[in-house]
Amino acid sequence: MVIAGTGYRAVTLFGRMLTDPRARGLAQLVGLYDPNPLRLQVAASAMKVQVPQYTDFAEMLQKTRCGTVIVTTVDRTHDAYIIAALEAGKDVITEKPLTTDPEKLSRILQAERLSGHQVTVTFNYRYAPYATAVREFLASGRLGTVTSVNFEWYLDTVHGADYFRRWHRQVQNSGSLWVHKATHHFDLVNWWLQQDPVEVYARGARRFYGEQGRPHGERCSTCAFTKSCEFAFDWQGDPLFESLYRQAEAADGYWRDGCVFAGDVDIWDTMTASVRYSGGVFMNYALHAYMPFEGYRIAFNGTGGRLECSVIEAVTPHTIPEFTRRQALRCSPDTASAQDFRFPLRVSDQETLYFFPVFGGVEAVAMPRTLVDHGGGDERMALDLLAPDAIDRWGHRAGTRAGAYSILTGIAARESIAQNRAVALGELVDLALLQ
Ligand SMILES: NC(=O)c1ccc[n+]([C@@H]2O[C@H](COP(=O)([O-])OP(=O)(O)OC[C@H]3O[C@@H](n4cnc5c(N)ncnc54)[C@H](O)[C@@H]3O)[C@@H](O)[C@H]2O)c1
Questions:
Q1: CATH class assigned to 2-122
Q2: CA 73 to ligand 1: nearest atom
Q3: Which CATH code fits 126-208+265-373+397-434?
Q4: What domain of life (predicted)?
């Protein structure tokens, strides 16, 4: 395998996966590509690998004997690497989102068909034990026919803010959080319901980040307001920040600590949508990027009752104004004091599904809470990627069909906001390509 795009995700997920002793005999890393030679070097040393490094993708394809290309570049560039890899006769594992725009999506789907090779999209949230339990419960049929869904996703002032610091903050790079982030959420719903989205009506606004009339600099490193700013970026927050980004800046000018209140932020931070599905389900969905905790709540209403699910991935100690302390405590909620959080729900070590049968009563299904790596999804997914022939009982593995439907909901939401009308997914691409 080779990796295209050696940023944080490449190092922390795929680097670990390929250097893990469990990968021995199953997969081997044989090359790294990134346009930034400085980041390439840092990434190779962080992964503790000595493999050829390339700043020319075509050269890497030509010179290495790889069967699979892992794509972990900036979202807007996924299509170019996926298509070039397929045309060179390789399989592809791509990070979400599959891509950012309908035209790029159509080209990927056509290239995959012509190549006879396969694209896998890494939907790690599917693998989280809690998400898998929801899938199992819905498949049991106890909810009867699902009629509607209420789904809210919360990004907090640590993780949510991070999307407004760098490339993600522009629609042209990330497709906006409707695509970059909500691709996870829309994929979960499609997978849970086993239905396809048909039509979307959406609203979006920028109410917290971006130009909000407050004095600010361009980036935290040079800003005069860092002492009083709750969002001053902490270069000490992770040992990789300094080496992977600040030391590599000279080669491409990529700032990791751009100001979250900068004028060139053009993505939304407040989003709601109404979605209709192929089996008749209606969904109300909301995504906010400045919440006091991180996680989601979802309820499925059905002819057999109601299933309520709630996950708190991290509680932000919002009594504390400084970003550095907020971030540190958020990452270790068990060691922080309850007062730091001033939060009625102490983070428990269990996650619970609640089923309310339609004629009364409640059943609770509890399972251990997983604090790390996307609800515990990352490690399970990595092991599955290494053993693609293993039995996949709940259909965790995803290809371009799932990748496409999950981004098309978000792209339809963007169009709906622009045109102030409901947008059908069939207006965006030829859906026959997804059959
Ligand atoms: N599944 C998940 O939960 C999850 C989590 C984090 C990131 N991701 C995905 O991983 C990908 C990388 O995210 P990241 O956080 O590592 O970002 P990053 O900014 O740390 O890394 C992006 C890399 O892409 C490189 N790059 C920039 N322009 C390029 C171009 N034109 N061609 C090739 N490479 C280019 C950069 O030099 C950098 O090394 C994104 O697609 C993101 O959506 C997924």
A1: alpha beta
A2: 24
A3: 3.30.360.10
A4: Bacteria
Question: Which amino acid, one-letter code, is at 368?
Answer: P
Structure tokens of 301? 């209403």
Domain ranges of the chain: 2-122, 126-208+265-373+397-434
Residues whose CB is less than 8 angstroms from the CB of residue 415 and which lie 6 or more positions away in sequence, other chains included:
423, 427, 428
| Residue of 3, 8, 9 to mutate, ligand 1, most atoms within 8 A of C-beta | 9
Cα-to-centroid distance, 338 and ligand 1 (Å): 35
For 18-61, how does the pLDDT look when each residue is reduced to its tens digit (9 = 90+)? 999 999 999 999 999 999 999 999 999 999 999 999 999 999 99
The mean pLDDT value for 105-124 works out to 97
Judge whether residue 72 has pLDDT over 90: yes
Most confident of 93-102, 288-297, 342-351: 93-102
428's tokens: 């965006």
Q: Residue 344 pLDDT more than 90?
A: no
Q: What is the CA(366)–ligand 1 centre distance, in A?
A: 35
- Residue 345, pLDDT above cutoff 50: no
Peptide bond into 97 cis (omega under 30): yes
Distance 12 CA to ligand 1 centre (A): 12
Could you please report the per-residue DSSP string of 182-216? HHHHHHHHHHHHT--EEEEEEEEE-SSSS--S---
Q: Whose Cα sits closest to atom 6 in ligand 1?
A: 9
Ligand 1 centre from 184 Cα, in Å?
16
What is the CB < 6 Å shell around ligand 1? 5-10, 34-36, 39, 72-75, 77, 95-96, 122, 124, 180, 374
> DSSP character for 101?
S
